[in-house]
Here is the input.
Amino acid sequence: MAAIRGICRPAVRYISSRNSVTLARLVCARGFSTKLFVKGISFQTTEKTLSDAFSQYGKVLEAQVVMDKVSNRPKGFAFVTFSTVDEARTALMEMDGTTLDGRILHVDIQKPRFYSGGMPIARGPPDTKVDK
Here is the structure.
C-alpha cells in the first residue's frame, strides 16, 4: 500500500498543479471500495429496507445502520457492502440523490481510516503505574 501511495502522490501533485480533475486523480487519491457510505437516512430506515433498496444494483453482502448507543435510534448514516467494485460503483451513481423513506440519500465511497499521527487523543485518566 505504501508503494501505491508513493506512486500516486507525485501524480496527484502534478495533476493538481495543472488544475484539472481527472479520473486518474480520483482513483489514486481515494481508490474505490466495495463498501459505500450512505448519509441522510431516515430514523425509520432499517438494515432490511436499506439492503432491499440497494440490492437492485448487485449482491449486497452487508447493510449496517449505525445506531446511537444512548437513544438506540439510527444516527442518520449507514454502510452498504457489495460483492464487487462494479456493483458498488453502479449503486453509487444510481442511488446518490434518490429518496428512501422520505429522505434524500447521499452516497459516497467509504473513506479509509488513517491515523493522522501527532498527539494521541486522551481516553480517560492517565495511567498511574510506574515501571521500576
Remarks:
- Strands lie at 35-39, 60-67, 74-82, 99-100, 103-104, 106-109.
